[in-house]
Design goal:
By secondary structure, the protein is of the alpha/beta class. Helix content is 32%, strand content 23%.
């Protein structure tokens, strides 16, 4: 017997490019940080699905990779749920071609029908959600101690610039910004740009990473390091808050000497991250105090003194939440570019 047909039609499909993403996100750092805060709390409350990332690697191009980050948000307080995925490639040699190292798209799916309803340029979204996460962590992890007045940045690429923008955009000011990068010219550019900002009193370039860490009370690590090089716990003996964004700069001894907060324990303690190496060394995870969601909810208290390390593996639910925020903002403005008929006029010919 044939099934009865319905009058349902597939949804319209929106394509959201870089310029539109930037129009929604630029200058709205506090707004994006609030999106990230809400998503961390939803993740802590079990309202998300965030499987492990999948890595596509290539025997003939071992330096390249493409990562798939699927995720789902159940929705809360009247906010609808959304499913989706970020598909992000990393090709280091793009820098020699004058191209960014990373490029990405995000796909948003309707939980009820499963239909994709939007494709967004997502390298920008990825950088912004990373920066918003770091700025949020800096704020909540220093809430019970004197607020850092100086910041040392190791790695002066796109992510470093985005993090500095989100720190300043959420109310931070700095007496000094110190920058180190293996490419001295890049460090000099970031230091010079930072020194021109009203919220920064002065800026400097550090000749080595160790000095950049040792000299500041807030430390931001945003390198492409594949293995630890900051291995001496004495480097953090002054008790800074360290945003371990690139995940592999710190040696196990530094991690084990610190109060450790992660975004998700299962995700972060894998793939050769600094916390993963520490776990392999001691054979347990007891050195991890808890998650940023626990700090936000008040169930984990950060000590007033001593080194605090935040290691965010980078959750796909954050990309999803920021991508949905971009889509919904453009939709409310009547500014979505939609592709009519993307899924065909109807699906009657496939019903049986």
């Amino acid at each position: 017997m044939c099934r009865p047909t319905t009058s349902a039609t597939p949804p319209r499909f929106a394509v959201i490019g870089h310029d539109e993403v930037m129009r929604v996100l630029r200058g709205r750092e506090a707004e994006v940080i609030n999106v990230v805060r809400r998503t961390y709390l939803e993740h802590e409350d079990g309202l998300t699905t965030n499987p492990p990332s999948s890595f596509l690697r290539f025997e003939d191009r071992p330096e390249n990779r493409i990562i798939a980050l699927p995720a789902s948000l159940a929705g809360r307080d009247g906010q609808p749920g959304v499913d989706g995925i970020k598909w992000i490639s990393s090709v280091p040699r793009n820098l020699d071609r004058g191209l960014p190292r990373a490029s990405a798209v995000a796909i948003l799916n309707d939980p009820e029908t499963g239909y994709p309803f939007a494709c967004l340029e997502a390298a920008t979204i990825s950088a912004v959600r990373t920066a918003a996460s770091a700025a949020l962590a800096a704020t909540v992890l220093t809430a019970g101690r004197p607020r850092p007045r100086t910041v040392g940045i190791v790695g002066a690429g796109v992510i470093a610039r985005a993090i500095l923008a989100h720190l300043l955009g959420s109310g931070w000011t700095f007496e000094r910004v110190g920058v180190h990068d293996l490419m001295n010219a890049r460090a000099a550019r970031l230091a010079s740009d930072a020194g021109c900002l009203d919220a920064v009193t002065e800026s400097t370039v550090h000749a080595d990473a160790e000095d950049a860490v040792r000299s500041h009370d807030l430390v931001v690590l945003t390198t492409a390091a594949a293995s630890p090089y900051l291995t001496d716990p004495a480097l953090v003996g002054h008790g800074p808050v360290v945003l371990n964004v690139s995940l592999r700069d710190l040696g196990p001894k530094v991690v084990l000497s610190s109060f450790n907060v992660v975004d998700d324990i299962e995700h972060c303690l894998r793939a050769g991250t600094s916390p993963h190496l520490a776990e392999q060394q001691v054979g347990h995870r007891g050195f991890v105090a808890g998650t940023i969601g626990q700090v936000l909810s008040g169930s984990l208290t950060v000590p007033e003194r001593g080194t605090v390390v935040f290691s965010p593996f980078g959750l796909g639910v954050l990309d999803l939440a920021v991508a949905r925020h971009v889509h919904d903002t453009l939709q409310a403005q009547g500014a979505l570019r939609q592709v009519d008929g993307f899924f065909g006029p109807d699906t009657a010919e496939f019903r049986s």
